[in-house]
Amino acid sequence: MKTIDDANRLRNRVLAALEQADLETDAAEQSRLLSFVVAGGGFAGTELIAELFDLVHGVLHHYPRLHDAETRFVLVHSGDRLLPELPADLGDYALRTLRGRGIEFRLGTRVVAAGPGSVRFSDGAQIEARTFAWTAGTRPNPLVERIGPVGDSGPLRVDECLRMTGVDGVWAIGDCARIPDPAQPGTYYPPTAQHAIREGKAVADNVAAVVRGRAPTPFRFGGLGILVSLGHRRAAGQVFGHRVSGLTGWVLWRAVYLGKLPGAEKRLRVAVDWLLDLGFSRDIALTSNEIISTTAPDRNRHA
Ligand SMILES: Cc1cc2nc3c(=O)[nH]c(=O)nc-3n(C[C@H](O)[C@H](O)[C@H](O)COP(=O)(O)OP(=O)(O)OC[C@H]3O[C@@H](n4cnc5c(N)ncnc54)[C@H](O)[C@@H]3O)c2cc1C
């Protein structure tokens, strides 16, 4: 789960799974189609499982044979705490809130294999599901691997002025770079958009400074805060050092994203769309021809 295309594909897949489940006569296959597994208990995975739950439960009434059918949502996370980026009490709040809705959490567990109809875990358990989403880490662009030192496939190491170490004339920012955070020596700035945007401006200033024969300026940014949406109009997080949760957190979360959109026209369009969401049910139109193979799960294809 990395791009808007991934999000669109997943939405189409979920709606296609519901359509197929509605016609399915085999109970085991119907259950597979109605089971959704997400790997990764960071921000992306937590928001994703909450949103999947809301999407499915928001549209289930459109599928006559599924009204009483059981759905299953499972989040698998290798750490022992959900949302390790947040203070423990907020992570616990998120876990309690989502568990209260019926979402299952397998903490301290890794996904070891995934096939067309099942996902296998490090504790030996297996869940039969036709939809599996991965949010437990992405790799940088292959170009970055080619520029970086041999054997180091991670983001490029840069100094605090955003210059790549060991290679003259290469600068790196955003998800492609490991930028030292002087506030916590030995650690790096997190790969978030709020950092990347500021790093973009900083690197432009630094390149211009070096071209003009001046010294570049070290990059410094303390972060504004973090918010995670928990669906059902709830969110949790920390903004400017203050903890927020529940409906207030959600309103703030939406306000932040609205504020980040470029231009008044786009902001107005999205605000109107969100207002309409409050009064109308979700759109279930498929925007691509997603067909989910329902052949028997092939265990030999586990990677
Ligand atoms: C699911 C998810 C949710 C997230 N939520 C948040 C959030 O709520 N808040 C937050 O602050 N951060 C969030 N992040 C992190 C944030 O999206 C990234 O840290 C940020 O986008 C990094 O910016 P970037 O410019 O380094 O990379 P990107 O935004 O990935 O931009 C890289 C660009 O380079 C282009 N590109 C790739 N290859 C080439 C090439 N060969 N030539 C030319 N162009 C190329 C790509 O098309 C892309 O447009 C989230 C990330 C994910 C995956």
Automatic annotation (TrEMBL):
FAD/NAD(P)-binding domain ranges (all copies): 4-200
Domain of life: Bacteria
Keywords: FAD, Flavoprotein, NAD, Oxidoreductase
A molecular function GO annotation: NADH dehydrogenase activity
Ranges where the External alternative NADH-ubiquinone oxidoreductase-like C-terminal domain occurs: 225-283
Annotated Pfam families: NDH2_C (PF22366), Pyr_redox_2 (PF07992)
Keyword hit for NAD: yes
Family: Belongs to the NADH dehydrogenase family.
Record's protein name: NADH dehydrogenase
